[in-house]
Design a protein that fits this description.
Helix Hairpins, 2 domains, two-stranded antiparallel sheet, 399 residues, alpha+beta, 10-stranded antiparallel beta sheet, Glucose Permease (Domain IIA), 12 strands
Length: 399
């Protein structure tokens, strides 16, 4: 059997572990709420900056949809907070009622003792009560009785004072919890109103876009053509690099970069800090056009004007490509992996330059007409003759 001292140590360790886990969860929740508020603010700013536009665009629809999703998430978190504070209020109310009940009982008990002492004092005081005993033993019993009676009353007075302090403290906690509950309820009602407003805004944008299907179809075809041209250029550059590598001696630096990059799967930082994913990797239906499918080789991150773009991992620049009407693209090699950064207005790096993780590469391009600020990010892998496109969301840290 485990010694008692070991059991105590284990119990203390378990309590400490539970406390640490609770603190970590609380901190994580605070960080999640803060990140959510920042994203809501970002979408609000982007929507405000597009209010002066005469025509609705799929970009505005993306922002409105993201704002709606974020507000729904915020509402869920508020609802969870309300449930949690309601549980706390119920527990504190129970504790308050129990303390008040104990206090009333203690007061009643003290009153009974006080009345009894008063009645006894009418007939004789404590000294006479002791001296009137028929013998010494009974006198000592009476002394003990008087002392116990006095001690009991003293103890009751102390208990009443302690219970009153506890009751006052519990009452303050309860009042504070009720204030929090009221504030959370008001925040929930405000969030619901904003959510309804955003839903209506999204419906209006969608209705306006559905009346411009032909225009959107032409724009979609032009975008697809530009994407394909850029993809072809990237493939040609990567193949050329791989051919040159075949003819050269095996570079241990390339192997190291490959292994380090692979270890960072799911941990890479986002290339743009203040942003949200407006288009995910892979094939998915067009946001407005029926029976039309989009194919995204990476992810699109919608952000605000002037945001910087950062390298997700150390490596070196293999190409800086000028893209007609779409700024620049930068290709960074990480051994057998490539990270590709597109829709850049300005570039601060050059070909063959070595990079460290989180180094600034440039600024995101804001389209002069649509005011669209969307950064495009891709991850590619080369394996001998094979070149494949990977889902960046599986490599980036979860937000």
């Amino acid at each position: 059997m485990m010694p008692l001292s070991c059991l105590r140590v284990c119990f203390i360790c378990l309590l400490s572990f539970a406390s640490v886990c609770s603190a970590q969860n609380s901190l994580k929740l605070k960080e999640e709420k803060k990140a959510l508020e920042e994203k809501i603010q970002l979408t609000e700013q982007l929507l405000a900056s597009t209010q002066n536009q005469k025509d609705s665009t799929t970009y505005i629809l993306d922002v409105a949809r993201e704002n709606l999703l974020l507000r729904e998430r915020a509402l869920q978190m508020l609802f969870a907070d309300l449930q949690q504070i309601q549980v706390a209020v119920n527990q504190t109310t129970t504790a308050y009622n129990q303390s008040r009940s104990r206090l009333e009982q203690q007061k009643k008990q003290y009153q009974q003792l006080a009345v009894l002492a008063y009645k006894n004092s009418k007939e004789y005081d404590a000294l006479l009560f002791v001296l009137s005993a028929p013998d010494f033993d009974k006198a000592m019993h009476r002394v003990k009785y008087v002392e116990e009676n006095f001690a009991l009353r003293k103890r009751l007075i102390l208990q009443i004072k302690q219970e009153q302090v506890k009751l006052d403290s519990t009452q303050k906690v309860l009042q504070n919890q009720l204030k929090q509950q009221k504030a959370l309820y008001q925040a929930e009602q405000m969030q619901k109103r904003k959510l309804e407003s955003t839903k209506q805004q999204q419906e209006n944008i969608l209705a306006a876009l559905q009346g411009r299907e032909e225009e959107l179809r032409k724009a979609f075809q032009a975008q697809n053509k530009a994407k394909q041209e850029l993809e072809n250029r990237i493939i040609d550059l990567i193949r050329k690099e791989e051919e040159e590598r075949k003819n050269a001696k095996e570079d241990p630096h390339v192997l190291r970069l490959t292994q380090q990059f692979e270890k960072q799967k799911g941990k890479l930082p986002y290339p743009v800090q203040k942003s949200f994913v407006s288009s995910e990797f892979g094939r998915h239906p067009h946001k407005v056009l029926k029976y039309v499918w989009e194919n995204n080789n990476g992810i699109d991150l919608t952000t605000q004007t002037g945001e910087f773009v950062y390298a997700v991992h150390e490596g070196f620049v293999t190409a800086v490509i000028a893209v007609p009407n779409a700024g620049y693209s930068v290709i960074v090699s990480h051994g057998n992996y490539r990270s590709i950064y597109s829709n850049l207005e300005t570039v601060f790096v050059k070909k063959s330059q070595a990079l460290h993780s989180s180094q600034v590469l440039g600024k995101v391009l804001t389209h002069p007409v649509s005011q669209r600020t969307v950064f495009h990010f891709e991850i590619w892998k080369t394996d001998k003759a094979n070149i494949s496109q990977l889902n960046p969301l599986l490599w980036l840290e979860k937000q």
